[in-house]
Amino acid sequence: MKTEDHSFLDGRVIEEVSRIFKALADPTRMKILYLLSQEECHVSHIAEVLGMSQSAVSHQLALLRTLRLVKYRREGKTLFYSCDDEHVISLLRQAIDHAQHQ
Amino acid sequence: MKTEDHSFLDGRVIEEVSRIFKALADPTRMKILYLLSQEECHVSHIAEVLGMSQSAVSHQLALLRTLRLVKYRREGKTLFYSCDDEHVISLLRQAIDHAQHQ
DNA sequence: TTAATATATGAGCATTTGTTCATATATGTG
DNA sequence: CACATATATGAACAAATGCTCATATATTAA
């Protein structure tokens, strides 16, 4: 195939896909997303379950919010986070399944 | 749910999945893998098509080899690379499709 | 063997990333 | 209001990343 005959990806698509995979590439964010795919959680619960500092979790949640992968609702002083992108969860589940069965 | 009631991921699975997503998270590697999913290519062809230096491509191919995502065969002085993990290509295609239709 | 070509690889460097620490903001309580 | 609790956020810093440049290795041809 010649250069001009290739099926190229749009630059915006490449950047978008890269953002999604970057989000999934970090073990901490993977754990957070996997946890939130099982149940809605508040921040300190995530921190406790994953054994991380509140600050570290909050920073990662901020990143996931920016990418619109999670959303939250407030209940008093507490914020409950949950997944906001089923497609990304589907990619995560597939990758996990594949890694588990090999 | 209490901490001990969560379905946790095995550390090895987390690391493995993280490695896969890290590989897919870089635009350059995405382009290389997407290209190789279309046809077997030699190194300088990849470099030309993607507008990158031979060295940069070779470094990324070395990384993808380490992860067993690509393989190669030699023909004289030339090395022909191709994909060696259909599952990862499947994840990539799904993410691309999703990004394109939104 | 010498030279040419194709690719790999090590060092160096700028950028990005993920954390911690300290502090700010928001909400509820007395 | 003052105070406690839950979370967010900015600064700083170490580690990881992706490139370039120079050079090494492998193969072929003369």
Present the secondary structure layout.
Two copies of one chain form a homodimer.
Chain A lengths: L10 H15 L1 H12 L2 E2 H8 L3 H13 L3 E6 L2 E6 L2 H15 L2
Antiparallel strand pairs in A: 1-3, 2-3
Chain A binds a DNA duplex (30 and 30 nucleotides) through α4.
Describe this structure in words.
2 copies of one chain form a homodimer. Chain A is α+β, with helices and mostly antiparallel strands. Chain A has a single domain, classed as Winged helix-like DNA-binding domain superfamily/Winged helix DNA-binding domain (Arc Repressor Mutant, subunit A), CATH 1.10.10.10. Helices cover 62% and strands 14% of the residues of chain A. Chain A contains 5 helices and 3 strands. Chain A has helices at 11-25, 27-38, 43-50, 54-66, 86-100; strands spanning 41-42, 70-75, 78-83. In chain A, a hairpin with a 2-residue loop joins strand 2 (70-75) and strand 3 (78-83). Chain A is globular. The model of chain A has no long low-confidence stretch (mean pLDDT 93). Chain A binds a DNA duplex (30 and 30 nucleotides) through residues 22, 26, 28, 42-44, 52-62, 74, 76-79.
